[in-house]
Amino acid sequence: MSNKTLAIIKPDAVKKNLVGQIITKITEAGFKVKAVKMTKLTVDSAGGFYEVHKERPFFNDLVEFMTSGPCVPIALEKENAVADFRKLIGATDPAQADEGTIRKLFADSKAENAVHGSDSDENAAIEIAHFFTRKELLENYPN
Ligand code: GDP
Questions:
Q1: How many domains are contained in the chain?
Q2: Which of 15, 33, 73, 77 measures 20 to 30 Å from 136, CA to CA?
Q3: Which CATH number fits the domain that encloses residue 118?
Q4: Catalytic residue list
Protein backbone atom coordinates (compact mmCIF):
# COMPACT_ATOMS: atom_id res chain seq x y z
CA MET A 1 0.00 0.00 0.00
CA SER A 2 1.25 3.48 -0.89
CA ASN A 3 1.11 6.24 1.71
CA LYS A 4 0.76 9.17 -0.67
CA THR A 5 -2.10 11.04 -2.30
CA LEU A 6 -2.62 14.20 -4.32
CA ALA A 7 -5.06 16.83 -3.14
CA ILE A 8 -6.04 19.92 -5.10
CA ILE A 9 -7.79 22.87 -3.54
CA LYS A 10 -9.88 23.78 -6.58
CA PRO A 11 -10.45 27.30 -8.01
CA ASP A 12 -13.86 27.74 -6.32
CA ALA A 13 -12.33 27.26 -2.86
CA VAL A 14 -9.29 29.44 -3.65
CA LYS A 15 -11.64 32.24 -4.80
CA LYS A 16 -13.57 31.90 -1.53
CA ASN A 17 -10.29 32.32 0.41
CA LEU A 18 -10.60 28.85 1.98
CA VAL A 19 -7.02 27.65 1.41
CA GLY A 20 -5.99 28.02 5.06
CA GLN A 21 -9.12 26.44 6.50
CA ILE A 22 -8.92 23.46 4.14
CA ILE A 23 -5.23 22.82 4.82
CA THR A 24 -5.99 22.98 8.55
CA LYS A 25 -8.70 20.30 8.15
CA ILE A 26 -6.24 18.14 6.20
CA THR A 27 -3.41 18.40 8.72
CA GLU A 28 -5.77 17.97 11.69
CA ALA A 29 -6.81 14.68 10.09
CA GLY A 30 -3.21 13.48 10.34
CA PHE A 31 -1.90 14.14 6.83
CA LYS A 32 1.60 15.53 6.36
CA VAL A 33 2.12 18.16 3.65
CA LYS A 34 5.05 16.96 1.52
CA ALA A 35 4.83 19.64 -1.20
CA VAL A 36 2.45 22.48 -2.02
CA LYS A 37 2.15 25.24 -4.62
CA MET A 38 -0.37 27.65 -6.10
CA THR A 39 -0.70 27.47 -9.88
CA LYS A 40 -3.15 28.33 -12.65
CA LEU A 41 -3.71 25.36 -14.94
CA THR A 42 -3.66 25.72 -18.71
CA VAL A 43 -6.33 23.99 -20.80
CA ASP A 44 -3.71 21.39 -21.86
CA SER A 45 -2.60 20.68 -18.32
CA ALA A 46 -6.17 20.40 -16.94
CA GLY A 47 -7.23 18.26 -19.92
CA GLY A 48 -4.25 15.96 -19.35
CA PHE A 49 -4.92 15.70 -15.64
CA TYR A 50 -8.55 14.69 -16.26
CA GLU A 51 -7.76 12.58 -19.37
CA VAL A 52 -9.78 9.65 -17.95
CA HIS A 53 -12.92 11.80 -18.12
CA LYS A 54 -12.46 13.03 -21.68
CA GLU A 55 -15.47 11.10 -23.03
CA ARG A 56 -17.75 12.30 -20.24
CA PRO A 57 -20.38 14.95 -21.12
CA PHE A 58 -19.04 17.33 -18.45
CA PHE A 59 -15.39 17.19 -19.60
CA ASN A 60 -15.34 20.66 -21.22
CA ASP A 61 -17.11 22.23 -18.24
CA LEU A 62 -14.62 20.54 -15.91
CA VAL A 63 -11.61 21.89 -17.84
CA GLU A 64 -13.19 25.36 -17.95
CA PHE A 65 -13.76 25.27 -14.20
CA MET A 66 -10.28 23.98 -13.37
CA THR A 67 -8.69 26.73 -15.51
CA SER A 68 -10.96 29.50 -14.17
CA GLY A 69 -8.48 30.61 -11.51
CA PRO A 70 -5.55 29.46 -9.42
CA CYS A 71 -5.64 26.13 -7.63
CA VAL A 72 -3.45 24.61 -4.89
CA PRO A 73 -2.10 21.10 -5.50
CA ILE A 74 -0.74 19.41 -2.37
CA ALA A 75 1.23 16.16 -2.13
CA LEU A 76 0.14 14.44 1.08
CA GLU A 77 1.52 11.57 3.13
CA LYS A 78 -0.27 9.36 5.65
CA GLU A 79 -0.80 5.68 6.18
CA ASN A 80 -3.72 4.60 3.94
CA ALA A 81 -3.60 8.08 2.36
CA VAL A 82 -5.83 7.54 -0.70
CA ALA A 83 -8.79 5.99 1.12
CA ASP A 84 -8.49 8.19 4.20
CA PHE A 85 -8.37 11.36 2.11
CA ARG A 86 -11.41 10.34 0.04
CA LYS A 87 -13.24 9.80 3.33
CA LEU A 88 -12.14 13.23 4.61
CA ILE A 89 -13.38 15.05 1.49
CA GLY A 90 -16.70 13.18 1.14
CA ALA A 91 -18.85 12.36 -1.88
CA THR A 92 -18.37 14.13 -5.23
CA ASP A 93 -21.71 15.92 -4.77
CA PRO A 94 -21.61 17.93 -1.52
CA ALA A 95 -25.34 17.33 -1.11
CA GLN A 96 -24.51 13.62 -0.71
CA ALA A 97 -21.38 14.14 1.41
CA ASP A 98 -21.27 13.14 5.07
CA GLU A 99 -21.43 15.81 7.78
CA GLY A 100 -18.03 17.23 8.67
CA THR A 101 -16.40 16.35 5.35
CA ILE A 102 -14.54 19.06 3.45
CA ARG A 103 -16.98 19.03 0.54
CA LYS A 104 -19.98 19.18 2.89
CA LEU A 105 -18.43 22.13 4.71
CA PHE A 106 -17.03 24.12 1.80
CA ALA A 107 -18.36 22.99 -1.62
CA ASP A 108 -21.29 24.47 -3.51
CA SER A 109 -22.08 21.86 -6.17
CA LYS A 110 -21.09 18.55 -7.74
CA ALA A 111 -19.08 20.46 -10.36
CA GLU A 112 -17.48 23.07 -8.08
CA ASN A 113 -16.68 20.80 -5.18
CA ALA A 114 -13.71 22.52 -3.49
CA VAL A 115 -11.20 19.66 -3.49
CA HIS A 116 -9.76 16.80 -5.53
CA GLY A 117 -8.41 13.56 -4.09
CA SER A 118 -6.67 10.73 -5.98
CA ASP A 119 -8.78 7.59 -6.37
CA SER A 120 -6.00 4.95 -6.34
CA ASP A 121 -2.35 4.53 -5.39
CA GLU A 122 -1.46 4.29 -9.08
CA ASN A 123 -3.23 7.55 -9.91
CA ALA A 124 -1.79 9.24 -6.83
CA ALA A 125 1.73 8.63 -8.15
CA ILE A 126 0.79 9.89 -11.64
CA GLU A 127 -1.01 12.94 -10.26
CA ILE A 128 1.78 13.91 -7.85
CA ALA A 129 4.22 13.74 -10.78
CA HIS A 130 1.85 15.98 -12.81
CA PHE A 131 2.49 18.85 -10.40
CA PHE A 132 5.76 18.23 -8.58
CA THR A 133 9.32 17.39 -9.56
CA ARG A 134 11.39 14.99 -7.48
CA LYS A 135 13.34 17.99 -6.23
CA GLU A 136 10.14 19.77 -5.10
CA LEU A 137 9.15 16.59 -3.26
CA LEU A 138 12.54 16.73 -1.52
CA GLU A 139 12.91 13.02 -2.20
CA ASN A 140 16.62 13.15 -1.72
CA TYR A 141 16.41 14.69 1.72
CA PRO A 142 15.75 13.04 5.07
CA ASN A 143 12.44 13.82 6.85
P1 GDP B 1 -14.30 12.73 -7.69
O2 GDP B 1 -13.35 11.55 -7.81
O3 GDP B 1 -15.13 12.68 -6.44
O4 GDP B 1 -13.60 14.07 -7.84
O5 GDP B 1 -15.36 12.62 -8.88
P6 GDP B 1 -15.23 12.17 -10.42
O7 GDP B 1 -13.92 11.50 -10.69
O8 GDP B 1 -16.49 11.43 -10.76
O9 GDP B 1 -15.30 13.55 -11.21
C10 GDP B 1 -14.17 14.40 -11.30
C11 GDP B 1 -14.61 15.84 -11.13
O12 GDP B 1 -15.46 16.20 -12.23
C13 GDP B 1 -15.50 16.10 -9.89
O14 GDP B 1 -14.77 16.25 -8.71
C15 GDP B 1 -16.22 17.38 -10.30
O16 GDP B 1 -15.40 18.54 -10.14
C17 GDP B 1 -16.43 17.14 -11.79
N18 GDP B 1 -17.76 16.57 -12.06
C19 GDP B 1 -18.26 15.36 -11.70
N20 GDP B 1 -19.53 15.20 -12.14
C21 GDP B 1 -19.84 16.34 -12.80
C22 GDP B 1 -21.00 16.79 -13.50
O23 GDP B 1 -22.02 16.10 -13.59
N24 GDP B 1 -20.93 18.04 -14.08
C25 GDP B 1 -19.81 18.82 -14.02
N26 GDP B 1 -19.83 20.05 -14.63
N27 GDP B 1 -18.70 18.43 -13.36
C28 GDP B 1 -18.71 17.22 -12.77
A1: 1
A2: 15
A3: 3.30.70.141
A4: 116
